[in-house]
Design a protein that fits this description.
This protein is mainly beta and 369 residues long. It has three domains: 137 residues, no CATH class; 42 residues, no CATH class; 149 residues, no CATH class. The strands form five sheets. Strands 4-12-2-1-15-18-17 form a seven-stranded mixed sheet.
Amino acid sequence: MVKKFNSSLSVIFILSLCLLPSALKADILVLFNSNGLLYKTVDDGFVLPENWEVVLTTAQKWYVETREVQPKYQIPAELPLGTYHMIGEKLVAEDGQIYVNTPFGLAKVIESGKSERILRVSSKSDVLFSVPGGYKIYYTLKNNVLEQFFAIDSPVDKAYVILSTAPGEQQVMYNKVAMVAESAMAEEYGAAGRKIFVLGNLEGLKRGIHLKNKSLQITRRDVNLIRLSYSYSYDWRPADYVVEIKTGEELPAGEVYVFSEILGNSIPVGLARMPDINKEGSLTVSKSWQIYHSWNLIKTTKAGGRVYITGELNLKGNGLTKVQIYAKGLSNLTVSGGTVTKSTADLAEIELPVSGVAKVQISFNYLIE
């Protein structure tokens, strides 16, 4: 079902129109993450497809009427030998063909009865429709190259396409047979706090077209991340395998297919969910075989509205390891190994390379909430 039209979307649509070529005559499709707006010219009597809603028109007067379309039959009809299902007063063949009894005998249903919604306009006019549709943004990460792709879900097969994104919007995946098109290299603009991708004239949209938009050279660092559960002792656990990236530009959230070189071939080895990136961020790919960790809580004391923690972090494996400690009013952090790379009122980060086994004595205190 199409979402109820939000008046703020009309502002975005109008701003999007300002980005278009002045001589453009194609239908204009603006896609949001899970719905869209279509601007097209129609004549009086235009049949509204399912889940299309009229938002506004340039006509002086318009309305939508409902018209009942009567069923069509082939009479007389012979019932072929075969297997049928009896559904109410209908016989349904395995191929979906329907037969019914009429006052004139057995009939083959050529067209079922239905209701149509008809747009009545006082003259040929431009109409803005709220339509089903959407897009998905996804990426591939191969060494230091991040590639961005668009997957388009469109209610029409041909249009001038614009994508409108905003931080925090969840991308919607849909199941369709897809084709891969040539690189899009969309023009990017900012409007009403949103990032606008102008893809231009596209055809074959109903087939679920996929577009490779651009490739970025990025800086990456692979780390084994431990979010320390310091309030109790625990046995061996795997760290999280995280890829930290610096992109140099803002990127909308999306899935990232992470590739690695195996036997001379680039192979997809993981799938990560990338949050909205403001020039830098991190991707949690999976649990890691490289580093395992356990924690021995040696002492915990409450005094003066604070909790005092002393413990030992045990590590085994190989690889760069980052330990994060989250605590309100974190203070007086001391570690026996590694480097404290970040220390704020609520977060501390410790980094160390691990080769074999390691033990790190950690002590700190924090506010009782």
